[in-house]
Amino acid sequence: MNFPFYIARHYLFSKKSTHAINIISGISVMGVAVGTMALVVTLSVFNGFHDLVASFFTSFDPQIKVVPAKGKTAPTDDPILEKIKALPQIDVAMESVEDQALAIFHDRQAMVMVKGVDEQFGELTHFNEILYPDPGANVQLHAGNLDYGIPGIRVAQMLGTGAMWRGFLHIYAPEREGQLDMSNPEAAFVEDSLISTGEVFNVSQSKYDSNYIITSISFARNLFGQQGMLSSLELRLKPGSDFDAVKKQMRKIAGDKYQVLDRYEQQADTYKIMRIEKFIAYVFLTFILMVACFNIIGSLSMLIIDKKDDVVTLRNLGANNKQISGIFLFEGRMIAAAGAVIGIILGLLLCWAQQHYGLVRLGESTGSFVIDAYPVSVHLTDILLVFFTVIAVGWIAVWYPVHYLSKRLLAD
Q: Which residues sit opposite 115 in a β-bridge?
């Protein structure tokens, strides 16, 4: 058995000559435990929000999206796209055309993104589940010479259409060809109109709810003059497919001409901001944990003084200076490790209680927010990160003081 570790373990659990040393050691352990618990809970809450936002985007974003690397559109019959669509792992492949346009309803107007899709959109995503007021409704976007539109819930509020509107929602887009005639500026725009399906969609993300109108791809192509073109090829894989392997294969086929984006890459800016926020929270809480670890220094200082006679005895028995310093180093590390284990257990218990009982709520009244209580998601990688962070911080906090005090003690 490691000699310094054996003695340090004995000191940790044995009764000291001064009762205050036991109290301070307990306070040191609890200080580290509270800092550790705060790290576990905070990182788990950030994970919860990350997963919540991801679930919102899943309702609208495809599993994989292939977009031109340069420009807005690409030919639908591009051999590269045809080769991607022909992969055996593809379950649903849908072409999409989207661009900005001006929407006018009576005396209200708003700049919107018109996204043209086909009837497979509901199979490609969970779009039908976010329709209001009839979730799961099977809506038509094109029938005969009529085109239907489904606006985001905030777009409907801005335009005053509601879920069901009477008459036509007029959509204007710039004419792609020809020159602007200042004597007849209306000729510079293509104008078309949509009628209501009686539904709006609610992603609970302003990027979509405040900007998008979903309609048929034929309407979007006519409006934007993009016959035979697409803005993106949106894909869903068959269940059980190796996602990473298929994406890698698609990127090899696409080369430099197209970008192959998964759901996280489609919302790269949003997830990058969330990762930065989580990292900053981790850094600040680690600094607080360092302050808590300084309590260990006080505990070890009193222990070294209390065990001065023991040190003399150990030296007489043949212990060298390195072994004696190692005893108190192990003592500090064990205090940090005990605090880490206790803090992780308490943090996990709090996360479990929050998941099942919603102890900390987002608002006083139910339904004020998308969810009623703070979301929590525990990731094993975060737990391991917290544990090793606490051990590292504890080791750094006690190393210099222990060596300094040990040298002073051994010199006397």
A: 98, 214
Classify burial at 169, counting beta carbons within 10 Å of its beta carbon; exposed 0-12, middle 13-18, buried 19 or more: buried
Q: Is 200 left (phi over 0), alpha (psi -120 to 50) or beta?
A: beta
Residues facing 116 on adjacent strands? 97, 215
Q: Find the angle CA(98)-CA(93)-CA(50) to the nearest 5 degrees.
A: 70
Q: What is the mean pLDDT of residues 301-318?
A: 62
Residues 6+ apart with CB under 8 A from 113: 98, 99, 100, 101, 211, 212, 213
pLDDT at position 218? 93
Structure tokens at 350: 């709090």
What is the spatial distance between Cα 292 and Cα 238, in angstroms, rounded to a whole number?
Answer: 51
pLDDT band at 316 (very low <50, low <70, confident <90, very high): low
What mean pLDDT do residues 128-139 have?
A: 87
What does the pLDDT look like over 150-170, one tens digit per residue? 999 999 999 999 889 888 999
What one-character-per-residue DSSP string does 139-191 give?
--SEETTEEEEEEBHHHHHHHT--SS-SS-EEEEEE-SSS---TT-GGGGEEE
Q: How confident is the model at residue 334 (pLDDT cuts 50, 70, 90)?
A: confident
* Segments of 251-311 assigned E as strands: 258-262
> For residue 24, what are its two tokens?
């301070």
Task: Say how far apart CA 225 and CA 86 lie, in whole Å.
Answer: 27
Q: Give CA angle at 334 (332, 335), nearest 5°.
A: 65
Cβ–Cβ < 8 Å for 172, 189: yes
Q: Specify the residue for token string 């996360």.
A: 351
Here the contacts of 51-57 (C-beta below 8 Å, separation 24 or greater) are 51/375, 51/377, 52/370, 52/371, 52/375, 53/205, 53/270, 53/271, 53/274, 54/263, 54/264, 56/203, 56/204, 56/205, 57/203, 57/205, 57/263, 57/266, 57/267
**Residues linked to residue 147 through DSSP beta bridges, in sequence order:** 142
pLDDT tens digits, 48-97: 988 888 888 888 899 999 999 998 999 999 999 999 999 999 999 999 99
Portion of the chain with pLDDT greater than 90, in percent: 47
Cα 406 → chain centroid = 47
- Tell me the C-alpha distance between 307 and 15, whole Å: 12
